[in-house]
Amino acid sequence: MKNKYTSTALAMYINYFVHGMGVIILAQNMTYLAQQLHTDKAGVSYVISALGIGRLIVLYASGVLSDKFGRKPFIYLGMITYIMFFIGILISPNVTVAFIFALLAGIANSFLDAGTYPGLMECYPKASGTASVMIKAFISAGQFVLPMVIGFLVNSGLYFGYSFIFCIAILVLNGIFLAKRVFPPANQPAPTETTNEVATEKVSNHKPNFWIEGISLILIGYTATATFYIIQVWLPQYGREVAGMVDTSALKLISYYSVGSILAVVVTSALVKSLIKPVRFVFLYPLISLVTLTVLWMFPTPTICIISAFVIGFAAAGGVLQLALTAMADLFPSSKGKITGIVYTASSIASFTIPLITGVLSKTNMSNIILFDAGVTALGVVLAIIVNVRYNIMVKSN
């Protein structure tokens, strides 16, 4: 708290609180948007897929330009683009127009990432890892709050669009707050972080093979994102249509999911620092998710839905993607920038392909979506086994 950039960091974190709501706001309002856009659930899911496409469009270029022009302009660019998304969705008359505005949400995400991640690392050069992980906590907090906001609107018979206006208001106020905040100089050499040997065990004697563990970790970037993305978008619908939950209770499932995610950030951060290597979590957490998804598919009751939402939030959304990146950096320390871009590209591909696939599945049986999620997660478990076996061989060779 003594850091002079604390207020700057707070403003950046608040943007990700809104981003957390933005990621799920279309799915949470699926019924109302289907009516507004004159479509069905598959049509709304098609619109949701635009978020991933939009992120891919500027993913690499925004990072390069952020290094050149600074962090603050790109953070503001992300905020403005997000506001355009929220307004645009509310005035969209059909799926095509909504898809175009949804692209802006993905572009806004890339702009925010380009300014925020390096900005936080520069604000806290000796604790850049912790500063970055905290972003996940604020995203989860936003995903916890939004279902409550929408639940209040539903119970009060109010316009669903107020949830979008709520997000706009936060961004506008945060933009005013950010205006006078000071940023550290960009691209300054950072002090070396002190890390625990347990979490960063060297594996250099037996060289890692990019085409085996490297490709496996990149594909985990896809499977990890797919696992929690499907739950974010479809669990409320599954709870309503298959488990027989009422609308407000089904929407709150994402709040339970978010609580699990926030708790995972705290627990995992502590364990990685002192006890367990990141590569082990890359296997353990998807395995837990696979078991949970299987139970959810076999026994679709309201209680199982609530428990599953929390467990999957903890195991799938609590940092598997970030842990895969950490494991990748351990194995390929000389190409951190390149592998980060590749893994996040795989994640973005999941963000737009998964809604398209599940949109088609929603026309058959909602249970098939959960079964598909279990299948993707099972692939992630197999990939993690490959990575861990290879990792063990390299550790033993040292």
Descriptors for this entry?
15 helices, globular, mainly alpha, 2 domains, Growth Hormone, Chain: A, 398 residues, single chain
Roughly how much helix do the residues carry, as a percent range?
over 70%
Number of strands: 0
**Radius of gyration over all CA atoms, rounded:** 20 Å
Strand-pairing-aware structural class: mainly alpha
Number of helices: 15
Query: What would CATH call the class of the largest domain?
Result: Mainly Alpha
Write the layout of secondary structure elements.
Blueprint: H1 6-28, H2 30-36, H3 41-69, H4 71-91, H5 95-123, H6 128-156, H7 162-178, H8 210-241, H9 247-251, H10 253-274, H11 278-298, H12 302-315, H13 320-331, H14 336-361, H15 366-396
Brief summary:
This protein is mostly helical and 398 residues long.
Protein architecture, described:
The chain is an all-alpha fold and 398 residues long. It folds into two domains: 1-194, Up-down Bundle (Growth Hormone, Chain: A); 197-398, MFS general substrate transporter like domains (Growth Hormone, Chain: A). 80% of the residues lie in helices and 0% in strands. The protein is built from 15 helices and no strands. It has helices at 6-28, 30-36, 41-69, 71-91, 95-123, 128-156, 162-178, 210-241, 247-251, 253-274, 278-298, 302-315, 320-331, 336-361, 366-396. The longest helix is centred in the middle third of the chain and has 32 residues, at 210-241. The protein is globular and about 60 Å long. It starts with 5 loop residues before the first helix and ends with a helix. The model is unreliable at 192-200 (pLDDT under 50).
